[in-house]
Q: What sequence folds into this?
């Protein structure tokens, strides 16, 4: 008796006995954006506000202060180990900071008891307002940006592209990826949008631009 | 169906794919539910408008559709090789692949994997494939509790109900009904809960939080599987998907074999097509992608069940196979005048709406249960084809399946059907002018059947009776055209046919 695998593959081959030929895929859609950096940042701000995310455009030297302002009132916050003084400034030494690193992973219960998370990001698509995390050391493993209820995310303007095809070129999809377009939301009840269900209910984005 | 069988046993489709009552009868009952119709009209029109708004923003929408359609066509053409490529890559990164011929086999595989972990409960991300195979029902029989975590699925599950829309499954319930379900079924809910959607969502968050944080096993579907890398993707909104895909140690995904895309770069088209067609958003709040078991990040025990359950039947139908291009966006149901009034339950299957009307019979065969009635659940207006992000020509497949259904019924019944008799009669009448002339002699009889107002209100029989159920037939004229022509030209000596018989001879020679 053949295995399920052999049987299914055999049936697919039988089903394709007419030998259909794979067509040439036309890729006439836009693959390169037309906006300059200022235009992309402006578009991104518009999209994030539409999603009810908090958004600020700040210069690099103002990032630690902006993060600190968002963390005012937070009892604790977690960062991945690769997020250092460059973005955190004095917050790197803040006694409320917990660092998630290999060998010293925070448990789910500890994350649940943590007020906020601060991370960087890999690449962002302005047209759809999509921030992509790829689990690099300055973004951390997926659980840390999920369980705490407040996510403060740093988006350098140099990592903002206009179109999704441009972002795909910068991604290795074998990394664990999380695409974030606003805080968690549902429209399941009478199609009325409610921000904040299971993921972080507050998303604050700091777009870093020195122009 | 134009299938080729080279001796392989036909893979049976099982699970929640069967219309048990003929569609028209089911729909007639559903139409009596005015609350349902009001909710549906509101929902379908809102999503339709949102979709149009975000689609019209993109100058290259049609080019994206062309690419999506061609990618899916190439997936079908190369499916065996792509599945093997996916399997090799997923396995190389620590994932385990299982193959399931039908719903029953998939359910058994999943059950065994859960038992291996010593778990008696699992958290679930909304998934069409697991609904199709009836996984929750099966697990319940095996003493395993499956908790749906998508808000709408939770509402449906707590209400002991079934989904009525693939994107917003609880669209047939309004906020008061949902509050009542929560108060009655949630156990840990605040008794003063009101019907504000934000408060209902908050109640769901609290209810599920402990489950997420303690679950050992999660079950998901997948929106896309990337062959060249072995990557799986889940598209969602609430974060319940991220919870299930990230926190438990064991993740079991059930995915139809048709869900593959060849390359990572194909996502650049599909991740524009899907959210805009589905929820009418520029992008859904969360998308997760994982490739086998990631080191030190998320589930370490990662399984994928590749499901046939009739997909190879659909693939074998050269006129119907493009139904497998479907990415489950639900745009077709939101624009369908039949779905908007009848609602999702009337289709009997996990897959409602225009896509369900073709997909269910393609998976099972038109001769199973009442699935042969589904292709008639359409006015063939074509709105679904225009809305489909991967350009599935649903109306064409509906007509094709109606043909299959007529053939299947003819084979089944020993006696000629009413349609056969009418067609036989027409064949005789139209074969010769003299025959038609003779048939027309009976026309004045129709005037007797018509009332004083000159309308025939009811014809006998199922077929003709069906025609007059919603239409009046005008009474035939006192005399036929042939009769008039023959009398009018009796004395004329012009060229051409001089009467019905001449025409009849010509017809006879043809």
A:
């Amino acid at each position: 008796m053949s295995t399920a695998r052999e049987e299914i593959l055999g049936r697919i081959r039988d089903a394709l006995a007419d030998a259909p030929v794979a067509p040439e895929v036309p890729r006439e859609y836009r693959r390169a954006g037309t906006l300059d950096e200022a235009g992309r940042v402006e578009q991104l701000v518009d999209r994030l506000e539409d999603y009810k995310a908090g958004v600020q455009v700040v210069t690099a030297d103002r990032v630690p202060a902006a993060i600190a302002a968002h963390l005012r009132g937070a009892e604790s916050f977690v960062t991945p180990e690769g997020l250092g003084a460059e973005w955190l400034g004095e917050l790197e030494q803040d006694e409320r900071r917990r660092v998630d690193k290999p060998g010293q992973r925070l448990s789910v219960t500890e994350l649940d008891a943590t007020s906020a998370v601060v991370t960087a990001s890999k690449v962002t698509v302005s047209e759809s307002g999509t921030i992509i995390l790829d689990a690099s050391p300055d973004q951390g493993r997926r659980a840390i940006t999920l369980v705490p209820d407040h996510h403060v995310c740093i988006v350098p303007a140099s990592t903002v592209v206009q179109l999704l095809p441009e972002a795909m070129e910068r991604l290795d999809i074998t990394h664990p990826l999380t695409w974030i377009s606003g805080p968690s939301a549902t429209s399941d009840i009478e199609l009325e949008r409610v921000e904040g269900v299971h993921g972080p209910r507050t998303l604050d984005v700091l777009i870093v631009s020195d122009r | 169906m134009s299938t080729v069988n080279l001796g392989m046993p036909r893979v049976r489709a099982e699970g929640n794919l069967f219309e048990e009552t003929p569609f028209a009868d089911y729909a007639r009952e559903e139409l009596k539910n005015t609350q349902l119709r009001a909710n549906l009209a509101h929902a379908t029109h809102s999503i339709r408008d949102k979709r149009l708004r975000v689609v019209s923003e993109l100058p290259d929408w049609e080019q994206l559709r062309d690419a999506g359609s061609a990618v899916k066509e190439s997936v079908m053409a190369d499916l065996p090789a792509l599945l093997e490529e996916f399997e090799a890559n997923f396995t190389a990164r620590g994932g385990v692949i299982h193959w399931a011929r039908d719903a029953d086999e998939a359910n058994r595989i999943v059950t065994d994997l859960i038992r291996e972990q010593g778990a008696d409960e699992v958290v679930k991300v909304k998934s069409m494939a697991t609904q199709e195979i009836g996984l929750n029902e099966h697990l319940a029989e095996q003493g395993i509790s499956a908790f749906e975590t998508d808000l709408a699925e939770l509402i449906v599950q707590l209400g002991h109900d079934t989904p009525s829309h693939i994107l917003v499954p609880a669209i047939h319930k309004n906020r008061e009904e949902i509050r009542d379900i929560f108060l009655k079924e949630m156990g840990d809910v605040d008794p003063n809960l009101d019907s504000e959607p934000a408060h209902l969502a908050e109640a769901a968050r609290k209810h599920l939080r402990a489950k997420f944080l303690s679950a050992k096993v999660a079950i998901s579907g997948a929106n896309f599987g990337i062959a060249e890398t072995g990557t799986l993707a889940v598209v969602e909104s609430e974060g319940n998907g991220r919870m299930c895909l990230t926190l438990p140690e064991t993740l079991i995904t059930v995915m139809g074999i048709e869900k593959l895309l060849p390359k990572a770069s194909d996502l650049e088209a599909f991740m524009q097509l899907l959210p805009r067609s589905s929820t009418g958003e520029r992008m859904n709040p969360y998308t997760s992608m994982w490739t086998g078991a990631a080191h030190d990040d998320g589930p370490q025990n990662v399984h994928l069940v590749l499901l046939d359950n009739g997909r190879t039947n659909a693939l074998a139908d050269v006129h119907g196979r493009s139904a497998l291009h479907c990415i489950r966006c639900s745009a077709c149901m939101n624009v369908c005048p039949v779905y908007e009034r009848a609602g999702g339950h009337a289709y009997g299957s996990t897959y409602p709406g225009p896509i369900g009307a073709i997909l269910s019979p393609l998976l099972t065969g038109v001769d199973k249960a009442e699935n042969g009635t589904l292709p008639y659940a359409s006015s063939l207006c074509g709105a679904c084809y225009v809305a489909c992000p991967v350009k599935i020509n649903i109306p064409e497949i509906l007509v094709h399946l109606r043909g299959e259904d007529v053939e299947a019924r003819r084979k089944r019944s020993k006696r000629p059907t009413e349609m056969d008799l009418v067609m036989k009669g027409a064949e005789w009448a139209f074969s010769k002018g003299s025959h038609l002339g003779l048939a027309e002699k009976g026309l004045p009889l129709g005037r007797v059947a018509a009332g004083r107002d000159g309308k025939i209100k009811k014809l006998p029989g199922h077929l003709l009776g069906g025609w007059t159920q919603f239409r009046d037939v005008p009474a035939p004229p006192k005399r036929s055209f042939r009769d008039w022509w023959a009398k009018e030209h009796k004395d004329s000596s012009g060229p051409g046919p001089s009467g019905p018989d001449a025409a009849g001879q010509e017809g006879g020679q043809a």
